[in-house]
Amino acid sequence: MKRLKYLYLGTFLIFIILFISANMLQEQREEKSLQGRNIVMNRITDLVESEFKITGREPENILSEIYYGKKSDWLKEYKEYMLPVDITYISAHREKSNVDNVTELTVSQSVWVLYNQDVPEGFLIFSFTDNYHQRSTFKMNMIILLSFIFTIGIIIYIHHKILKPFWKLSVYPERLSKGAFSEKLPETKNRYFGKFIWGVNMLCDKILYDKKHIHQLNKERQTLLATIAHGIKTPISNIKLYADAIESGLYQEDGIPNEKDAGIAVKINKNADDVVVLVQEIIQKSMEGLVDFTPSVQSFYTTEIVEYIEEEYDNRLKMLKIPYEIQCCEKTLVSSDKNGIIRIISQLLENAVKYGDGTGIWVMIEKKEEGHYFTVKNNGVTISQNEIPYLFNSFWRGSNAGTVEGSGIGLYEAKQIAMRLSGDVLARGTDDGMEFVVYVPGVS
What we know:
alpha+beta
């Protein structure tokens, strides 16, 4: 909105400058045209005076000859708006005056004195039925005004049809890159972004499919590693037993260890221990690679989490007819990784939607001395107390999963992210559902 305000202000200033500049130029043109009219009136007056001095004819007759009779010649030399539409002569002598000939002052008029031997003989009244420049100035200002209204209309259209949808879409690729798949972009018939939204949603589906496939491959890899680890465990144990027996002289007839064999047995025992450590490191490294998250600490307000939940889940939960409530005690400052917390809460909300009974979801944000607590609670089937310790294991799914699609990696990922933020995620069963509490240390 701030950027749009500057756009409106800039447009307004441009048209103000255009309006002032155009009217200044118009005033200069009007002054120039008035000079042209003065030249015409002065020339006509000189011609009448000259002819009157020579012939003594009536000025009216002279005007008919030099002006009205040659109007086409005057139009070739001067522009039409410079020429008077009527010239009235009024004699300065009472016995010759005819004031009835004076036109009403409803037109633009100029009065010039007609001299005879430096003595006023009468007056020439030049009448202009229309002020050309007033009309052109009015038309010019109307064009500027209509152009301004049209431009503002175009800006409003661009804002509502292009800029506003684009600003909403611009954050979605970033969310996709950070693994936020809570809600797809709503389909639209917008001629500018309809195909783009369709393509982005297809990309989201593809990423989700690939992510699910990767989870399945990771599960198979973990299963393979666990099988290898257990398969290696027994032979290594046997090797260590044989090495201990050789070292103790168990296989010697006199029971006295052979010094050379005992030294070799010690080396075998050490190598066996190295193999065990190596296998454990391989399993640990493979587990760490399941979660792609590097903390980036920044300061943000708890209300930003509330805004994210409302923006991402409001329409979806309304469509599913699942009532939900968000409780945030106050606007407090958190020093942590905002995207990490959003990933955790999104995973908990996804589980609440999938495994809840659809009768209610609650999100509570609290600030205590030691940090912030984000609680997600839902009504639904409660898993047994014996299963809770295994909830955050990788690829483990509770007995309440049933036929609900899932990989068993979500809660493990949430736990790992929280731990990398120096926090934790806890779970407990309630009388009518499940409750997950996310603890994140932070300052306010």
